[in-house]
Design brief:
alpha+beta, globular, 7 helices, 5-stranded mixed sheet, 29% helix
């Protein structure tokens, strides 16, 4: 399999789950780097078909309670991960330190495992997301913003509000119920347990 070519099993999420909202942080520059990330060339959320189908089932389950999903990121090309690595080595660029990693130096983002050289996102079945109120579109309180690097983002953090802990528990429960595995350091990050490409890091652009 050529990692630089998009396989048929990687699809547009909205073609499977059209009611899921998107807020593609690495396309817009509204992220910890502060710029559009290399490889994000279109307003498109790509993910494996099995993961998309599972997310549609999550969306339907939440909709019974007036809730839904908002996705921040899914498939991430390896070139995007490489962009993160180059950014981490530029110690002068700390534009968004206060908002995203106030207690950490940039090299610690890799040494402590918040960023990695080969992301599960590049395998095509990992998603970053939150829960929203379908009527208002508002995100439920989760205790931190997406991509906040620190212990406050750990799924078992006890220093956040009871409401935020309950909302995290809801997200964890419904995602696990539909076949996803959470990541301890990031309440928003889930990987499909039976991912179709467990050993391939793709590097085709999102276009």
């Amino acid at each position: 399999m050529n990692p630089k070519q998009r396989p048929d099993l990687i699809v547009d999420l909205l073609s499977i789950a059209p009611n899921i909202q998107l807020d593609l942080k690495y396309l817009t520059g509204d992220n910890f780097v502060g710029d559009r990330i290399e490889g994000y060339d279109a307003e498109l959320c790509l993910i494996s078909r099995p993961a998309a189908s599972a997310l549609q089932r999550v969306q339907l389950a939440l909709a019974e309670f007036g809730l839904g999903l908002k996705v921040f990121d899914a498939y991430r090309p390896q070139r995007s991960v490489d962009h993160f690595l180059r950014w981490s080595e530029d110690h002068q660029d700390i534009r968004h330190k206060a908002d995203y990693y106030p207690e950490l130096a940039k090299p610690e983002l890799f040494s402590k495992g918040y960023l990695v050289q080969h992301s599960s996102h590049s395998r095509g079945s990992t998603v970053d997301l939150t829960v929203i109120d379908l009527e208002t579109g508002d995100e439920l309180e989760m205790g931190t913003r997406f991509d906040f690097f620190g212990e406050e983002s750990w799924i078992d953090c006890q220093s956040i509000s009871a409401q935020a802990r309950g909302n995290r528990m809801l997200l964890q429960h419904v995602m696990v119920q539909h076949g996803f595995v959470p990541f301890h350091h990031e309440w928003w990050h889930f990987t499909l347990q039976d991912e179709p490409y467990p050993n391939v890091c793709f590097d085709f652009p999102i276009a």
